Amino acid sequence: MSKHALGVDPVVAPAEAAAQVEETVATAAPKLRSHDELKAIAEAGAAELGWDAPARDVIAWVERNFELPAVAVACSMADAVLPALVADQLPGVDVLFLETGYHFPETYATRDEVAANLRVNVVDVLPENTVEQQDRLLGKDLFARDAAQCCALRKVAPLRRTLARYELWFTGVRRDEAPTRTNTPLITWDEANGLVKVNPVAAWSFDQLVQYSDDNLLPVNPLLSQGYPSIGCQPCTRKVAPGDDPRAGRWAGTDKTECGLHV
User: Fold this and answer.
1) Is 233 designated active site?
2) Domain residues of the chain, as ranges?
3) Helix, strand or coil for residue 200?
4) pTM (two decimals)
């Protein structure tokens, strides 16, 4: 039930900022097992749990095979289902929130509610530069000119640096969210980030997610009931018409469908 930031001093130069992040990761990280060891564990877990094991069984497998300081939950703060599920079995788990500087006010409010009411440690993952610094370095509103670069700088790179301190991360990716996610496994080796990736609710539908949230009175981003079934940064997220792909409102008007975190 706490919140802190993992990132950089917003007034330092980018090179110094990167050094600060690396120092934070190095000093805070537990002793991690080798990639070969973790890959073998992931393969064994995938074979044991198969394609559609219940979320609680997936989390129980993590509890048996990993220590709490080596585990993190990624959460966009669209809802609190994944943090709540994991915290039921791994109380005090780190919940990583990518603080891009571009979120809806409702998203920040949901983050604060999660930090206050769930047994988790919310960590704001910060990019090297504030929005203002990025505007000075690369021009105003990079997201409008090069959404891929903006996501890379404000989401992908900060998360990759942060994940270096963990052996495993949970994500809330679901197979029904988009065609690019239909083959999402429950457990896999994340080669890009160098750790085990676990998707406990991969087999859930959006309706199941809402039902679990309602039944357990969990914090939920009010935008979900206002036409935003998938919530990202405010400038790049639009409402979705009923029946459309839930992620159709992300980077609307472009051919971009993923921010790069899960591909």
Assistant:
1) no
2) 2-225
3) coil
4) 0.83
